[in-house]
Amino acid sequence: MRHNWTQHLRLIVFLLIASTGLGLYFGQPFAGLMAALAAYLVWTLVQIRKLHHWLAHPDTGDEAPESIGLWGNIFDNLHRLHRDHLRTRDRLQASVNRVQESTNAMRDGVIMTDAQGRMEWWNGSAEHLLGFRRQTDRGQYIHNLIRHPSFKAYFGARDYREPLELNSPAKPHIHLQIQISLFGDDDRLIVAKDVTRLFQLELMRRDFVGNVSHEMRTPLTVISGYLETMVDNADDLPPKWRRAINTMAQQSSRMEALITDLILLSKLETGEQLVNADVVDIQAMINHICTDAKALSGDKHHTFSVEIGERSYLKGDEGQLRSAFSNLIFNAVKYTPAEGHITVTWTTDRRGAHLSVKDTGIGIDPVHIPRLTERFYRADPSRHQQTGGTGLGLAIVKHVLLNHDSNLEIKSGPGQGSEFICHFPRERIAEYLEETGPA
Ligand code: ADP
Fold it and tell me: How many separate helices (H) and strands (E) can be counted in the chain?
């Protein structure tokens, strides 16, 4: 028998009146009322005890205690809520299990950490690829387990647009690509992909290009040497050979430039040419390059403006930076018609230092800009014969800048000239101290 609140109240009032009436019959109305109240109190306490016991031991059984009246109603409602809660919990647990099973089946390692890098969950592949152990590593900081400084910097930088590549800390022969995504309350989802095969193919490609270029350099130097001698003594040659020898000499010097660029690029890529921590005097370097650029400009009579402060110093590799800046300034000469203007500017602000090479030349269609730093990519293939470029200049610039934690920005439009800006981070700027000079 179940009651709602109003029925319950009515029943209590009726019982109290009845017991007071019974007491009145025996001449003790107050005792009758007290007896009824005491009985109600005891019954209520018994129900509260049942409820307390059930709430304190929710796992002992699903069933809520049995009762009658209002308390029966309360227990029924609680029982229904409890049952709904269990069903929802089971459904959620099933979903979580399914997600975990599917991520466990993945070949990529998946790791969840909080904002500080404390490991909360990871799949079986993460154990295999990174050597994590389920029993001991939960709650550990991930930087203590992946101890590469580059990983620590990548995790902390919060700029996860590009993936990071590194060798597995547990199995150094495995090469991993790490990608981090933010989710939830600033938590991190880290995906580690095994890219060993791709990495080895890429290494083979680089080695091949590097080795072939080296092997070709010696015979080519011999051929160029003889051709130059023949060009110098062209008057002794039969007239029908002169043109052929001249063309051969031009092409062999182009091939030499190509091979020099290929060797430089392969050194930059393999990291064989480490970034020396030179302190480079930018003004002196740019002035020197501009002198060569004026010679290259020849009878095209370009005008040059160089706006670089006296004390502009950068920490980096002098040789690499010279190649990068020369490529940009020589390109400005090559792709700017006669009487054009070339401006080289060095600025610093709170983000870092910026070297801009701006010309009033032919410009570039924006569709080509994202691909310009690829090897042999040319915005206008018909023109490269005239300019005599190798098609590797901007690829070299990109790699030099990568080695200096920097990047290249290109602004251009057809017929509007071009601006190539190298952005260097603040840490690369060398301070000038009056006592010791640049540091
Ligand atoms: P290249 O040896 O052909 O100059 P680069 O890698 O140096 O090779 O440049 C790639 C392409 O970018 C060039 O072929 C040219 O189409 C375009 N380019 C580079 N610099 C400029 C510039 N200052 N103005 C216009 N086009 C340019």
Answer: 13, 14
Residue nearest to atom 20 of ligand 1 (CA): 331
Q: How far apart are the first and last CA of the chain?
A: 91
Q: What are phi and psi of 59, to 5 degrees?
A: -90, -10
Ligand 1 atom closest to Cα of residue 363: 25
Any ligand 1 atom below 6 A from CB of 340: no
62: confidence class by pLDDT, cuts 50, 70, 90: low
- Same-domain check for residues 30 and 142: no
155 lines ligand 1 (CB under 6 A): no
Confidence at 431, pLDDT banded by 50, 70, 90: confident
| Count of structural domains within the chain | 4
| 252-287 per-position pLDDT tens digit | 998 999 999 999 998 888 766 566 678 999 999 999
Strand, coil or helix: 273? coil
Closest ligand 1 atom to residue 394 Cα is 6
396 lines ligand 1 (CB under 6 A): no
- pTM recorded for the entire structure: 0.69
Domain, as residue range, for 33:
5-100
What rounded mean pLDDT belongs to the chain?
89
Hey, whose CA ends up nearest to atom 7 of ligand 1? Answer: 393
Q: Which helix (H) or strand (E) holds 253?
A: helix 239-270
> Is there an atom of ligand 1 within 6 Å of 330 CB?
no
CA of 420 to the centre of ligand 1 (A): 11
| Whether residue 186 is found in the same domain as residue 55 | no
Q: What is the mean pLDDT of residues 105-120?
A: 92
Take residue 9 and report the two structure tokens written for it: 């109240």
Residue ID of nearest Cα to ligand 1 atom 16 = 379
Same domain as 425, residue 332: yes
Phi, then psi, of 76 in degrees rounded to 5: -60, -45
| CATH number of residue 253's parent domain | 1.10.287
374 has a pLDDT exceeding 90: yes
| Long-range own/partner contacts, residues 384-392 (CB < 8 A, 24 or more apart) | 387/334, 387/335, 388/254, 388/334, 389/331, 389/334, 390/254, 390/257, 390/258, 390/261, 392/258, 392/261, 392/262, 392/265
Q: Where are the alpha helices (DSSP H) in 111-195?
A: 124-130, 134-137, 142-145, 149-157
* Residue 174 amino acid letter: I
Among 38-52, 182-196, 304-318, 383-397, the least confident range: 383-397
